[in-house]
Amino acid sequence: MDTHHRIALLIDADNVSVDVLRQILHRLQLTGDRLQHRRAYGSVQKAVEFAEICRDHAIRFLPSTFAGPNATDIAMAIDAVELMLRQPVDEVVIVSSDMDYSPLIVRLRELGCRVTGYGQQGKSGRDIERDYERVYDSFEVVGPAKARPPVRAPGRPAGRREPIVAPPLAVPAVAAETPAPARGRAPRSRVAIPAPLPVPAVVATSLVEEPAAAAIATPVRAAKSRRRPAAKVPPAAPVIPPSLPAAVDEVLQACPDLRGGTPVRLNGVAVALRERGLLTKSGKTTSFFKKLEAHFALLPADKPESVRFLGGSADALG
To answer: Domain 6-142 - what CATH class?
Structure first.
């Protein structure tokens, strides 16, 4: 007879990050309970993002191909009730920062099931936590792990190396005759004049190859005025400029997840904006961000479900 505590783990991938989910799975493994059902729900884009962690923990990812901000919530709610009616479990663990699951939680408790919730710090506001404490048996907010700064070896800065310059070529002397003065009939003398320096085919550097004509124009001047070649810098996440409009800065403070440049679900952002008083209760999130289209992009454009921070540049969208 199976005496383990049976748990159904349901994950709203549109409202939680991979790092937070990894922390929650570690906590559940420490309890020794049996995760009988492991399912994740989200958009097709999230299916790619969560592919590795779902494979490592045997989680079934059920992507939603339907448009609309609540498609994932409805799909997960239907599965939760169906699981309780067909294969009852002792506890349902819901991983989400969305506040739309209160009716589902009440229904699961009526069916005799314990319901536990986990939310992500920064997406679950204090009002959501307060409301969830009334319906959940327990609700906990998990913060994302802080990323460590990259460690660089002491010495020269990364990406800068001394250029390797080809050794100077020997300048052969060529005899040239100079005309004698008009009077005096002195014999003509022969003076050694340096011959033109031959142009090498390639000047090798450790980082950048430049054409020979551009590298050496004049033997002496080129050696003095040559600059170090610029190192190639890989593309990085959107860089937040030191000064942003006040409206953009307030949005980033309300929803810090936007700073990374990855798309964030509109319903989670709307909750954070309303908590800060930036968006009225009846205001539309799409209309709000269209006023800031130079800094934020709505994805997809025809039926927006997510918003992405462009790093302060309107050209970054392209």
So the answer is: alpha beta
As a whole number of Å, the end-to-end CA separation of the chain is: 59
Q: Which fold has domain 246-317?
A: Arc Repressor Mutant, subunit A (1.10.10)
pLDDT, tens digit, 9 for 90 and up, residues 226-284: 666 666 655 555 555 556 788 888 888 888 888 888 888 888 888 888 888 888 877 88
Contact indicator for 25, 57 with CB cutoff of 8 Å? yes
Q: Is the pTM of this model over 0.85?
A: no
Domains of the chain by residue range: 6-142, 246-317
Those residues whose C-beta lies under 8 Å from the C-beta of residue 111, and which sit 6 or more positions away, are 81, 84, 85, 88
β-bridge mates for residue 138, sequence order: 116
What stretches of 64-125 show up as alpha helix (H) in DSSP? 71-86, 102-110
- Is residue 268 within 8 Å of 230, Cβ to Cβ? no
Q: How are beta strands 91-95 and 296-299 bridged, if at all? A: unpaired
